[in-house]
Write a structure and sequence with these properties.
The protein is α+β, with helices and mostly antiparallel strands and 106 residues long. It is built from two helices and eight strands. The protein has one domain. The strands form two sheets. A six-stranded antiparallel β-sheet has the order 2-1-5-6-7-8, with helices on one face. The longest helix has 18 residues.
Length: 106
């Protein structure tokens, strides 16, 4: 596991998937509560709203090459993804949280 928040990187290892996914959800919820980005303007280009900014990323590497994670946005929302170089958003199914969607996908 790796958590990237600005220049800070935090790493963790777990022996089983249940423990790892519980930690991902706990850490992700903490990051969601702390999110408070402001719009960012790039002169002559555009303005990025907090929802468009990834303020923290939790990356998960599993056995057999499984990769995915959670992006925490500047407005406190989250989105699950899978992949390595090319990321694909994991669609949430009826009432599913991004954390449950990531668990299902991996």
């Amino acid at each position: 596991m790796r958590v990237r928040q600005g220049p800070k990187v935090e790493k963790a290892r777990f022996g089983d998937a249940g423990e790892a996914f519980a930690w991902v959800e706990q850490r992700g919820r903490e990051l969601e509560r702390a999110a408070n980005a402001r719009p960012v303007s790039v002169p002559l280009v555009r303005t990025f709203d907090p929802m468009q900014q990834v303020t923290a990323r939790i990356e998960v590497k599993g056995p057999r090459g499984a990769r995915g994670g959670i992006d925490v946005r500047g407005d406190g929302s989250s989105e699950a993804w899978t992949g390595r170089v090319g990321r694909s958003v994991v669609e949430q199914r009826g009432g599913e949280s991004p954390y449950s969607a990531l668990r299902r996908a991996l």
